[in-house]
Amino acid sequence: MWRDIVLVAGKDLRVEWRSRVTFSQVVPFAGLVLVLFGFALDANRPVLERATSGLFWITIMFVTTLAVQRSTSIETTDGARRALLLAGIEPMAVFAGKAAAVAVQLLAVELVLIGGIVVLYGAEIDAPLLVVATCLAATVGIAAAGTLLGALVAGVRARETVLPILLLPVLAPVLIGATRAFDDALGSVAVDGWAWLAMLAGFGVINLVLGALSYGVLLEET
Amino acid sequence: MTTPVRSEAPAHTGSTTTRLLGVAVIVGLVALVLLGFFGAPADDEQADAVRLIFVHVPSAFLTYAAFTVTAVGSVMWLWKRSLWWDLVAHGSAEIGVVFCSLTLFTGSVWGRPTWNTYWDWGDVRLVTTLILLLLMVGYLAVRSMGGDDSAVATRSAIVALIAAVNLPIVNRSVEWWFDRTLHQKSSLTDGNLEDLTLFTMLLGVVVWSLFYVWAMIHRFRVGWLERELRFGDLDVAIAQRRAEARASGDGGGR
Amino acid sequence: MTHLGYLLVGWGASLGALGFYALRVMQRGRRAAGRVPPERRRWLAAEETS
Question: Is residue C41 part of a domain?
Fold first, then answer.
């Protein structure tokens, strides 16, 4: 089981690494969104500082839809999904592996974006541990929900537009929770960030379980 | 030639049951309007704006009832694989979206004179209901994308489950986000409503529920017929061709 | 009556939306039923026995 998860995750990451899309397109896109928010908020430092955590996570939501779409298209091209099933890998392991690969990519983008908000928005990180924990907990939930919904729309016409419609409302609690936790970690609003972390973890666990249970049905029937 | 066939199988989705239900809904609506506007007393604080409760609360109640039916139908589809449950889930979601939009709209209209704002981000029920609407619009989007019938049913059933599981988390998170709410705790239990107001509100719930049942029966039959159209057997196709030939060739517009 | 504008908009939208949906679902039913051969309209057969 664990070996299969690592196998699937490794496969996806290798495909990503060789295509260089994450680094040559997704990361620049994320940076661009940060710059555009800067323009939109009129270089107004106080406003930008208050909005930093929200803008950070909105950017991650956009990046998520891209990452999930790429992760899904790996399986839909050339009937690779069927091949995975034929190889005798548990659907649960496929789900966990693909989610892990998406999570690794998102964490890489988050790392770059944290640099971005420090440099561009003048964010000061008061609680590094909280930042790391929030990124981890939120990313697990985002990757789980994203991978499940990605597989769900895999066989659908116009999946590029359907995916955000489905994914973004589901991720609403992550956006709220991770933004509040970052508000605390960056010292912009006085809230208890650690309490929000529990909610993020809960979201992650619930969506991991949901995904693990329903991924097999999706792989086999759609 | 066509007349005797039509008398056996009328070309619409009505039946004695739906006609009775329809009459009951219309009578109920007339009673609701009369009671709502002239029977129930004005509120001490909200004056006549309180009369919006008679459309807002039934819509909210039916929103959650309809989506509960969708969730149950989805689970039953995944479990029993019966077309019946899939059609129920689909129909209920469609009607639920109508009620959900109405809930948000009437709530906004009611909020303006009483809370002095159309919308409040801190209000848990408001934001949760909006997210629910977005989720169900996504559900209907998946349904409308087409594909193999059972694949669509499975896909959308899982969307409904994801929505049902995540909605409580949305609710919790909004509640923590802003620790305040403009909504009265519950219109039913706080005992501040006049008897006739309460009665009229419950009448509203009954009328809305009757409408829901009426619409569900029709919507179910529409779903059944449209499925027949999409996946008719060969003999159905042949019968259609014959019917088209009989209809002197003007069926080419399909 | 106070707030009459709000009341009319709220009630009007509610009754209007329900009425519109009702008409639309009946219209859809008529259109679909007209194209399905009678022997395949099974829900009608089931009902006639009752």
Answer: yes
Residue A22 amino acid letter: T
Q: Please report residues of B whose CB lies closer than 8 A to that of A222.
A: 147-148, 151, 154-155
Q: Which domain holds residue C37?
A: 17-50
**Is C39 part of a structural domain of the chain?**
yes
State how far the Cα of A9 lies from the Cα of A121, in Å rounded to an integer: 34
The residue assigned the tokens 């009426």 is B214
CB spacing of A157 vs B165 below 8 angstroms: no
Partners of chain B (3+ Cβ pairs below 8 A): A, C
Q: Low-confidence residues of chain B, pLDDT below 70?
A: 1-9, 178-192, 232-240, 248-254
Residue A107 is encoded by which pair of tokens?
Answer: 């964490």
Chains A and C share 3 or more Cβ pairs within 8 Å: no
Please tell me the pTM assigned to this model: 0.86
Helix axes B149-177, B53-80, angle to 10 degrees: 130
Q: Of B217, B10, B234, B5, nearest to C33 (Cα)?
A: B10
The residue written with tokens 């959308």 in the block is: B156
Examine the pLDDT at C49 and tell me if it is beyond 50.
Answer: no
Domain boundaries, chain B: 19-41+49-182+195-230
Contact criterion met (CB < 8 Å) for B13 and C30: yes
Distance from CA of A24 to the nearest CA of B (A): 31
- C-beta atoms of B174 and A156 within 8 A: no
